[in-house]
Amino acid sequence: MCVFSQTNFTKKLGVTSYVLGCLLTFDCQGATADDTVNNIIKRAVEAYGGDTLMSLEQLQIEEQLYRFSEGQSGFAAHGAHGIQLYTYHQQLKINYISKTKIFKRSDQNLIGNYGYYDMTVVDRRFGGEKGFHIDHCMQTFQPTTRINWDSVSLDMEAAVDSLIVKALAESTTQMERKGTMLIKGRIHDVLSMTKNDSQHTMFFDSKTGLLSRVVRKKSNTKTRYDFLNHTQNNLGIVWANQTMISNDGHPYKHVTSRKVTVNDTNGSLILKPKKYRRKPAVKFLDFVEPSINQVAEGVYLVGQDWGFTLFVDVGASYISMGSWQMPNDAFTWQQRLAHLHQYTGNKKPVSQFIVTHHHDDHLMGLHDVIKHGAQLLLLSEHVEAVQSSQRLPVAPKKLTLVEDATELAHGKVQVFDVPSSHADHNLVIYLPEQKVLFAEDMYGSSLEAGFHSPNSWPSRDVYYRSETLEQKINSLGLDVQKYVSSHHGRVLSNDEFNQALGYVCPNNKELVGRLYSE
């Protein structure tokens, strides 16, 4: 095995590229192995700009790219999931002298199921040993310890080959040569290293020194970066104009164009936009332990973390709704019911359970409901999704079809269908006596007070759905005083729901204008 370490390259270098070899210190069993690793690194640095690359004071990288993902389907007949496509424009500014970085990104949905909030922007900054998150929707800034020199760019730098080579030359991390491999008919030298609990395997073209591929393995996940279409500026800095990123063999991101601009003047990078106010401190609600909240007379919200179920006492039994669950959740629907029995001191069964929509995270808990013996109430459009979600077919006699404006328990429970961008059919439940409304994926807050910015995930489309729901409520003339969600333990008052409706982002053009304006 041959390993190398490198002395500090953080100072500006005013030497020729030949000195790079002298600055490499090796610990190998043989001189031939020493020279091989030395030459691979030396050739790569020279290929990407040599002294110019290593002595950069400031640079800017701009990219256009696509991101592919699997998201929840908006149309029940198409199944629970579908492909989603986003387009990114992102920019990274680095000042190596002042140790400052600014990362900006606009993120627009091209294929998916969203309302008019199809764009968000990200602005993360680090300087003076401090990190800042900028919200251009709410025009606020927030200091944060979660942003540091390495994390500020959200892994963008891992996909820029010239930055990888520069960091490699400056690193003291041990490396090992793993032989050679053919890529597109060209011989590549393979180097490997372990850094931050990740194994990195790098493939360098043996003739040109250019980096063609990096495979990063962490835990059981492999991320692969393929660098294509190398280009060069007038200063001799080289970079891949395109990069293909895949996770475990599936396409993830495709950088379609990249531009690198070098600025050798020590210009300052602004960390806090003018006229922006500091974001007020917020406190998240903590539901680590199983909880129960009597929302109103005979109405109980039981859950933990992100999963909550509503139980409505209708006399001899309960009507229930909300079976949101993840595969490893410990506090399941059956345990929530047992928690309710312990709280109330009675053993009333659940006679009916209302299925709101077709997404699998809201159907996963139905196994417990069916085992308990409750009748499933659902729209005809959701029958196929319910059947597909269970290991064994659900007997037709256990399914009862409902329609928009169905009344249950002599009018104590009313069910309405509210289609939105999230799902083509989504049932909400209204309790007229208690003036309580229950919905899934339409509103909510994980904060003790206030709401999440519309310029964040998963909030970006929720505010659109809240407006859709409000229109339905107004058209029906419902008097809602309490809003309950399956995702949040916090119950909203009518005033709080109206407050959430006031959280509005500007249009895409203005939002992007704020992002790139200083």
Automatic annotation (TrEMBL):
InterPro entries assigned: Metallo-B-lactamas, RibonucZ/Hydroxyglut_hydro
Domain (Metallo-beta-lactamase) ranges: 296-487
SUPFAM superfamilies per record: Metallo-hydrolase/oxidoreductase (SSF56281)
Signal peptide positions (record): none
SMART domains per the UniProt record, alphabetical: Lactamase_B
Name the UniProt record assigns to this protein: Metallo-beta-lactamase domain-containing protein
Organism: Pseudoalteromonas luteoviolacea NCIMB 1942
